[in-house]
Amino acid sequence: MIETEEAVRRFVAGEEEAFSRIVRRWENKVYNLAWRMLGNREDAQDVVQETFFSVFKSIRRLRDPRSFSTWLYQIALNHCRARRRGRPADLSLDGSIFDEKGDERPLVSGLPVEQQAPDALETIDLIRKAMMGLSEDHRIAIVLKEYLGLSLEEVASVMDCPLSTAKSRVYHGLRGVQRNLKRLKVL
Fold first, then answer.
1. Pairing state of beta strands 104-106 and 96-98?
2. What are the distances in angstroms from CA 132 to CA 2, 52, 54, 73, 141?
3. Distance between CA 167 and CA 81 in Å, rounded?
4. Residue ranges of the chain assigned to CATH 1.10.1740.10
5. Fold of 1-90
6. Are 121 and 146 in contact (CB under 8 A)?
7. pLDDT tens for each residue of 56-79
8. Directed axis angle between helix 118-132 and helix 163-183, to 10°?
9. What is the pLDDT of residues 120-146, one digit of tens each?
10. Distance, CA of 153 to CA of 156 (rounded, Å)
11. DSSP letter at 151?
């Protein structure tokens, strides 16, 4: 993350190109988060744009460049929440994700969704349904921890809660998924 910290410092000091480096480094991660929270590619792309517009406008107020990733995810989650207001939440666990280099990578079995076995697609749909039965805090904690690979400390920081609360949200969220899968007669 030293690369990001340096880019933040350079942008704040007036080097416009540094912001492009920040966007290139983080846009796929923000997209993956937004897509999993919203379940819609167009909405996720809009959230990416809105997030980086917000970052551009307020990055000079960021006190510590080392906390950039936490701050960025908080902004992205706020845009996801704003976009979801007034309509039911959806969660995407299928399709593909984008890696660090921006290459599209299928989420299940290494194949494009349309070429995956029906059982894999059914499993993805069941997990999505099970997660939709969770509170927003539990869903966010699971997406951050299990799908984006953040540590529990990072989850706590992004969600602005104590570490024990983050652990509890992940634990109870996963238990909730298990319970919901049992209700769906999967387990």
1. antiparallel
2. 36, 27, 28, 21, 13
3. 22
4. 1-90
5. Rna Polymerase Sigma Factor; Chain: A (1.10.1740)
6. no
7. 999 998 889 889 999 999 999 999
8. 120
9. 667 777 887 888 888 999 999 999 998
10. 5
11. -
